[in-house]
Amino acid sequence: GNPLLKVNNLQTHFKSDAGVVKAVDGVSFAVSKGETLGIVGESGSGKSVTSLSIMRLLKDTPGQIAGGEILYDGQDLVKVSESQMREIRGNDIAMIFQEPMTSLNPVFKIGRQLEEAIRLHLKFGKKEARARAIEMLKAVGISRPDTIVDEFPHQLSGGMRQRVMIAMAMACNPKILIADEPTTALDVTIQAQILDLMRNLSKTAETAILLITHDLGVVAEMCDRVVVMYAGRAVEESDVYSIFSNPKHPYTQGLLASIPKMGERVDRLQSIPGNVPIPTRMPEGCKFAPRCPLAMEVCWEKEPAYKEVSTKHSVRCWLHEEVPNDEPELVGSAQ
Ligand code: SF4
Ligand code: MG
């Protein structure tokens, strides 16, 4: 069907002493109702800045959306007023972060924080909000919700806090849930439980999920489609099966090769040498050229465009695009 959210060539810039840093410089993707879209990349790839841009939560950063569109429900979120955006946040698009301690207020009881979020967005009365809070805590698998409501965030484990955050995010039935590394801080067992929970919630409520992660295992487990980001750009997008079976961008290929296989020792892990380029010192052409085993001359000179190379499979790489011929055409005979 029609995409719920469509990001077109997003550009988010940061002003710094070293000049303008283009943290996001050409990100496009779309997500549909009920779909889980993964956004993967190393730290510094711009994936978190992309999600903060969608939420328009750059206010506390030196960042600013400098171009592109974020289309949601017939409006461009780049252009809507701050008060419209406040309505959209929480009601339509909710977000959870890696460390819920930073988004929960340590001095208020869990119940009060949940109720306040519910009352703010759903205009519920006090009693209704209490009932909804307890219902949501049950929905996220908290077994004694009437006890938990009277506890403070520090009394809960990391996994429980993340469940509370998910309850808070889902309480208002958002259309889209943005989850930025939601399980990275949790141990493996709890991580699997939280992912399970998110998968079930998205299925029953048909919530679209934008799952930001550096973990391709999480992508394989959770996502329908995936966008690979590198140096502020989207470099490949496809359905998860195609990404794993037929990755087209050398960076994606490198990422996949760096996942340890079953029984393989970690010291034999093949990874991509080098680092994501410093934003103020971006190479001229393809931003991956300094690390790319397949780099050609053109790669150093000109940045490839982001192109659909087969159905719903887009890549930004000269290997999948016709290399331009810069030689001037000879007109007539050259004598
Ligand atoms: Fe490698 Fe060139 Fe493709 Fe960049 S454009 S990923 S350098 S082959
Ligand atoms: Mg991040």
| Main pleated sheet | 8 strands, mixed
Tally of strands: 12
What's the CATH topology name? Answer: Rossmann fold
- Can you tell me the number of structural domains? 1
How many whole angstroms does the radius of gyration measure? 22 Å
Strand order, largest beta sheet: 6-7-8-3-9-10-12-11
Distance between the termini: 59 Å
Bulk shape: globular
Give unreliable regions as ranges: none
The percent range for helix content is 25-40%
CATH class: Alpha Beta
Q: What class would the helix/strand composition place it in?
A: alpha/beta
Counted by DSSP, the helix tally is 11
The CATH architecture designation is 3-Layer(aba) Sandwich
Q: CATH homologous superfamily, by name? A: P-loop containing nucleotide triphosphate hydrolases
Instruction: Give the overall pLDDT as a whole number.
Output: 88
Bound molecule kinds, no repeats: iron/sulfur cluster, magnesium ion
Q: Helices and strands, in N-to-C order? A: EEEHEEHEHHHHEHEHEEHHHEE
Supply the key terms.
335 residues, alpha/beta, Rossmann fold, 8-stranded mixed beta sheet, 4-stranded antiparallel beta sheet, 11 helices, 12 strands, globular, binds iron/sulfur cluster, binds magnesium ion
What does this entry look like structurally?
An 8-stranded mixed beta sheet has the order 6-7-8-3-9-10-12-11, with helices on both faces. The chain is built from 11 helices and 12 strands. With 335 residues, the protein is an alpha/beta fold. The chain has a single domain (5-92, 174-320), classed as P-loop containing nucleotide triphosphate hydrolases (Rossmann fold, 3-Layer(aba) Sandwich), CATH 3.40.50. The protein starts with a strand and ends in a 20-residue tail after the last strand. Bound molecules: iron/sulfur cluster and magnesium ion (MG). The site of iron/sulfur cluster has 14 residues, from loops. Magnesium ion binds at residues 48, 180-181.
